[in-house]
Amino acid sequence: MSDPVIITCAITGSIHTPSMSDALPWRPADIAAQAIDAAQAGAAILHLHARNPDDGRPSARAADFMGFLPQIRAGCDAVVNLSTGGSAVMTLDQRLEGPEAASPEMCSLNLGTMNFALYPMAARDGPWRFDWEKPFLENSDDLVFKNTPRDIAAVLDRMGSQRGARFEFECYDSGHLTMLRHLMDRGLVAAPLFIQFVFGVLGGMAALPENLTHMVRLADRYFGDDYRFSVLAAGRHQIPMATMAAAMGGHVRVGLEDNLYAARGVLSRSNAEQVARIREIVEGLGRPIATPAEVRRMLGLKGAAHVGF
Ligand code: KMH
Ligand code: ZN
């Protein structure tokens, strides 16, 4: 509880598609502008995916990341955290192209192979802006998000050992904590850990309070004082579950990657709007928010002077 609260903002992701919200940034200039605004609103970490600049489809190409990373670096001091999950339709080498070129302070690391079903979102009313969107969502009913122990070890080596990045460990289920403990026992992972509990993905654990208390109990048992946890929850569960995390001494993640809505039927206007909202809640609970400098100290990051963009 003595930690200031780390607000992570996940700016665009690879789940939502351009037709779903005009606020979802996918052009490089819009990703950069929303990221900088989110940092000004209080996000100390920016979790970033790239998009194809012509049609908004998920991308992890180095050139697409480099279309916005230098602008973000020039515009704010927030910690840049690049997804190594990319999108489940990509190979691991594709997922790592941008992160390897950019050598960020942090990256995500997904701790298990799983379903990552987006197909219910294909049922929306309204026209599609781009041809790729509907099949992309529909075909997720037969897609495996592959994160085998070999894949995980490769990410730890290529991004961690070789480039000095530290990790946002994405845990969608209790077995992912078992895997993290195993990796620590193998000497592949070291404290301090920053664990992101992910709720509400179809294929992972549901956004229920008892799942969060269970995950915290398990993490206490496996990692003792060696970890901090943060919570992200998909869709309408985003703010309630993040609030619960903050009340329990944890950290929070918001952003349009995880949720497009401000209220039932009301789209969020921006990432910064979601950051401002959770900031008000967190501060109302009596907990200050962390600055990027505090995050760098808390998580043992290499510093912005050592990134590749
Ligand atoms: N999209 C989130 C549910 C990643 O980028 O590596 C999880 C995530 C994964 O952010
Ligand atoms: Zn992500």
Biggest sheet, in brief?
8 strands, parallel, barrel
Strand proportion: 15-25%
Low-confidence stretches: none
User: Between the first and last Cα atoms, what is the distance in angstroms?
Assistant: 34 Å
As for the number of domains, it is: 1
CATH class: Alpha Beta
List keywords for this structure.
TIM Barrel; two-stranded antiparallel ribbon; 309 residues; binds zinc ion; 37% helix; 11 helices; single chain; alpha/beta
Give an account of the 3D structure.
The protein has 11 helices and 14 strands. The chain is of the alpha/beta class and 309 residues long. The chain has a single domain (7-306), classed as Aldolase class I (TIM Barrel). Helix 1 packs parallel to helix 10. The protein is globular, with a radius of gyration of 18 Å. The mean pLDDT is 98. The site of zinc ion has 8 residues, from loops.
